[in-house]
Design brief:
single chain, 3 helices, about 25% strand, elongated
């Protein structure tokens, strides 16, 4: 189980911060360390199965006074749901196959619209339908 451990250390200069980072990163189970805080006096250690008490005591011995502030469990980031692509329909080749029978033609001058072609044509007398 990954966890984030926040330790406050009395660090005043960059040399002390570097020593604290080096000590924390070399500790068993630590995968990363980061300096945090307003005055850059906290170190956040990320790792799996890190012995936080032993880490704090080691920092006290090698660097400066250290106290354990918090320990939080790190949850893996949730993957966003992948959207399935919509099926791609092939375009209808009107020049080769003509207009499909289910295609509603806007101007049907002969009145076929799905009727058999053997019947006599019915002329459309709508004023907005112009063939020529």
């Amino acid at each position: 189980m990954k966890q984030k451990i926040l330790i406050r250390i009395s660090m005043t200069d960059d040399k002390t911060r570097a020593k604290a980072m080096k000590t924390a990163v070399q500790f068993k189970g630590v995968s990363g360390a980061e300096i945090k805080g307003d005055h850059r006096n906290q170190i956040e250690v990320t790792g799996a199965e890190v012995d936080m008490i032993c880490l704090t005591n080691t920092l006290r011995k090698k660097v400066a006074f250290a106290e354990l502030v918090s320990v939080n469990k790190v949850e893996p980031p949730k993957k966003p749901e992948e959207k399935k692509p919509e099926p791609c329909y092939q375009p209808w080749h009107y020049a080769v196959y003509g207009v499909p029978s289910s295609y509603p033609h806007p101007c049907d001058p002969y009145g076929y619209n799905g009727k058999g072609y053997t019947e006599e044509p019915v002329y459309n007398h709508e004023p907005n339908c112009k063939i020529m």
